[in-house]
Amino acid sequence: MRKIIRKPCPTILLEPYSRKNPKPRWIVYGERYAQQANRSYYKYPKIDKKKLSHLLLPILMEQTDDHCSYCDGFPLMNADTTIEHFKPKAKFPMDVCNWENLYVACAHCQSVKGEQFNELLLRPDDITYHFEAYFFYDYTEHKIKILPNLPPHKLEKAKKTHEILAFNHKAMVESRRQSYEGFWDKPDYPSVLLKHRFIFE
Ligand SMILES: [Zn+2]
């Protein structure tokens, strides 16, 4: 999981919802979704006839140079470009449009993470997060491993993140191996077009 620098919250989420209800839009959207009886489905509201998700996705994509926020997969296909909620929206409805809770992630990572959430889960855009502070890359096995001798509070976070995001899922290991073997000897290849960029950094 490569470090991400989060872009500032788009003003469209911070603007007052209406004159009568001047709370920021994202709060009002959260309150409404929290009142929704069946939260298995979320329909993004429209602002000036544009779906909110269509306004936010390009910014989330730009934030990761069009890569998955968790595995750094690239390129993202049509099925990958749905908004991923770090805190699952059904359990945390107030965060459904909370900018800090929104990421872009590939279909694989969205599916392994599913509805799982734990307070220990590391965020790629946490200002204190760095891959090298928790993990290292095993270039023989192409597995992401937890650093030895981490203090207990960091070890717990590393373990939980590794488990929930299934860093060493068989397909992911193979994808990283192919990426490494295809590009390790091509230092001039534009890094922004590589997947799993942390392997090469
Ligand atoms: Zn991914």
SSE map:
Elements: H1 11-14, H2 25-35, E1 46-47, E2 50-51, H3 52-63, E3 83-85, E4 102-104, H4 107-113, E5 135-138, E6 143-146, H5 152-164, H6 170-183
Antiparallel strand pairs: 1-2, 3-4, 5-6
Bound molecules: zinc ion.
Describe it for me?
The protein is α+β, with helices and mostly antiparallel strands and 201 residues long. It has one domain (11-199). 30% of the residues lie in helices and 9% in strands. It is built from 6 helices and 6 strands, in the order ααββαββαββαα. The strands form 3 sheets. Strands 1-2 form a two-stranded antiparallel sheet. A two-stranded antiparallel ribbon has the order 3-4. β1 and β2 (50-51) form a beta hairpin. The two termini are 12 Å apart. The mean pLDDT is 96.
